[in-house]
Amino acid sequence: MLNSVRVAAIALPLLIATTPSLAAGRTMADVLAASKPSDWRPLDPNNTLYMDLPSGRVVIELQPDFAPKHAANLRALARARYFDGLAITRSQDNYVVQWGESGAKKPMGEAKAALPPEFTRPAAGLNFTVLPDPDTYAAQTGWVNGFAAARDSAKGSAWMVHCYGVVGAGRDNDVNSGSGAELYVTTGIAPRLLDRNITVVGRVVQGMELLSVMPRGKGTMGFYQTPEERTPITQIRVAADVPEAERARLEVLRTDTQTFTDLVESRRNRQDEWYKVPAGRIDVCNVPLPVRKEKS
Amino acid sequence: MLNSVRVAAIALPLLIATTPSLAAGRTMADVLAASKPSDWRPLDPNNTLYMDLPSGRVVIELQPDFAPKHAANLRALARARYFDGLAITRSQDNYVVQWGESGAKKPMGEAKAALPPEFTRPAAGLNFTVLPDPDTYAAQTGWVNGFAAARDSAKGSAWMVHCYGVVGAGRDNDVNSGSGAELYVTTGIAPRLLDRNITVVGRVVQGMELLSVMPRGKGTMGFYQTPEERTPITQIRVAADVPEAERARLEVLRTDTQTFTDLVESRRNRQDEWYKVPAGRIDVCNVPLPVRKEKS
């Protein structure tokens, strides 16, 4: 068995010897078990989308700190029922699953057909939790309010990074051609080459396993070639528009807390017996962003 | 559409201005189209496994430069028909798909039930192609004979890195408990924390899309909870044991060639019109390792 969660004390002497900072030697499970209610925040229903598929519900959290125009447009598209009856059109192995359609002949309500790019934003004014480890692509990485991000102090800019499960707004070659009417989610290795080239709107916080297994399309770039291959979208709704009783009541771990900092350390230097060589470092996309049911 | 392959000249002035080394401005397609027959090597039938599933064939290339004992054991297990009739037992989202079984009551032929670890090897004696870009986890990354690898000159050691599609030998907590009887393939973000903690045996060179879509298991760590959820393995064979007419005649691009160096550069600074901000760097796991049908 490829064991990756079991906890044991026996490895601690080794790990302490190689990583003195780890006297506590806590696993992620230990860290989460010790978390306080204030370490968590509920999803904002106004920034949460439910995409209902025949196989179940996908919950997407939007990030208006970085893409406010796209968040507003997605709310408008959902309220116009734009996505309902459209489909998942593309599944490219080790890259993305894509759905929706730009320019579908459907009412768009208050939504715009195209938006200016929200690829980056000023770094100033963000509550940025820094990850100290080096990154191949960015001068600095970390998290902003629960989302993996990067910043370039020289340029004074910040952006969301393409980790697994990140949702973005497809566009054509024109940077002004995206609207959110066509969305993608990353399903393989972190496609960091997309960073700063496309608008990231948020991430999947529940139901990723429904999207990641979509049969790969045989057409160019993984597009499906026949209507039969497509999975229909039952509906996409803003959580705030769904009766409270029907909402997925989820909380995400705040990334600006000591608990999250401890979680990152527990992953940089794994504390279960299975691991023999602690990495001592971690990539921003390898850090889990915990989600749980609201404690009621 | 999330366009990621279209080629256009219009972006070249921008890209040349920001990356002077790119006067050529070639895309990966350009680079591959200009490759010479000597830039490619056929798969060695003795180091190639075919895993036949109801959905089709998965082709795995073994890497005996790093894991010779495991390569030999896998040949012996295949020749004993050890895997035939076993199943895919685990699919954990954004992590691994796993198959086979340690200690199954089946004849093992010449195979050993457990092997010493082949997590790392001496860096000396490897034809290591260096990637100049920084890596979060290793002092240096690059490629050895078509496989992503890393090395630590201080320790004088080298190892294969866990990119998407890498195949490894599951083990329990004891580092001597792996044998190849239980294998996994990485299906999400590169799980680099596994590097140097488990034996990588090779990588999937064809058919990855058959494994990556396996429904995620609902048990702990993505294990399937009922036999019905498991996908049976029809057979695993060494390519050398399969009649020539039934072999997948594949070639992989040599990584110790100028063509591959040019390919890496074409990915570090994408040359198609869709990309507006060239990354200028690349992670070793973001570099495609091209495979093609043998030219006959």
What does this 3D model show about the protein?
- 2 copies of one chain form a homodimer.
- The longest helix of chain A is centred in the N-terminal third of the chain and has 12 residues, at about 70-80.
- Chain A has one domain (about 5-290): Cyclophilin-like (Cyclophilin, Beta Barrel), CATH 2.40.100.10.
- The radius of gyration of chain A is 20 Å and the shape is globular.
- Chain A has helices at about 10-20, 30-35, 70-80, 210, 260-270, and strands spanning about 40, 50-55, 55-60, 85-90, 95-100, 120, 130, 140-145, 145-150, 155-160, 165-170, 180-185, 200-205, 230, 235-240, 250-255, 290-295.
- Chain A has a 9-stranded antiparallel beta sheet. In chain A, strands 6-10-9-8-7 form a 5-stranded antiparallel beta sheet, with no helix packed on it.
- Chain A is built from 5 helices and 17 strands.
- The first copy, chain A, is α+β, with helices and mostly antiparallel strands and about 300 residues long.
- At the A-B interface, loops of A face loops of B.
